[in-house]
């Protein structure tokens, strides 16, 4: 029997600069426009996580409350009111686009949830009403 999927929304504010260090300021301005501003710019992001609990019973060790606490804590520590450039500093794809941020989020959240009864089904990161990325894991 398929277990139901539940959806959870988390909001955070972060800054970033879209630019490639190997390019000149002019090249970055042509490619990324205002987003290449050396002072950065910010967004109010929404992260929508779809999860499935492995077992829905009285014996379930972790659940939706645990998931919300774990993800909220992760976001507060790593993303909220922080630089996304710094967040991705150790990644091969250092450009802080929705897609690259989402790939790191997927990896990090799966690691946080590894000892739980919770499975990530999908993640969607919404940067603006016109710009988002989604990854499906099942």
Number of strand segments: 5
Question: Separation of termini?
Answer: 15 Å
Radius of gyration: 17 Å
Residue windows where pLDDT falls under 50 for at least 5 positions: none
Please give the domain count. 1
Which sequence of strands runs across the widest sheet? 3-1-2-4-5
State the assembly state of the protein chains: single chain
> In this structure, how is the largest beta sheet organized?
5 strands, mixed
What is the level-2 CATH architecture name?
2-Layer Sandwich
Notes on the structure:
The chain is of the alpha+beta class and 138 residues long. It has one domain: Tetrahydropterin Synthase, Chain A (2-Layer Sandwich), CATH 3.30.479. Helix content is 30%, strand content 31%. The protein has 4 helices and 5 strands, in the order βαβαβααββ. The chain has a 5-stranded mixed beta sheet. β4 and β5 form a beta hairpin. The longest helix has 15 residues. It is elongated. It starts with 5 loop residues before the first strand and ends with a strand.
């Amino acid at each position: 029997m398929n277990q139901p999927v539940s959806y959870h929304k988390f909001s955070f504010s972060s800054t970033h600069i879209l630019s490639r260090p190997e390019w000149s300021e002019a090249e970055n301005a042509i490619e990324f426009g205002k987003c290449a501003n050396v002072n950065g710019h910010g967004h109010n992001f929404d992260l929508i996580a779809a999860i499935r609990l492995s077992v829905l019973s009285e014996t379930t060790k972790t659940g939706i409350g645990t998931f919300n606490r774990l993800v909220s804590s992760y976001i507060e520590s790593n993303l909220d009111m922080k630089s996304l450039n710094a967040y991705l500093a150790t990644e091969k794809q250092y450009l802080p686009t929705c897609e690259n941020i989402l790939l790191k989020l997927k990896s990090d959240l799966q690691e946080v949830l590894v000892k739980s009864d919770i499975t990530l089904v999908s993640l969607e990161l919404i940067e603006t009403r016109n710009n988002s990325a989604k990854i499906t894991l099942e």
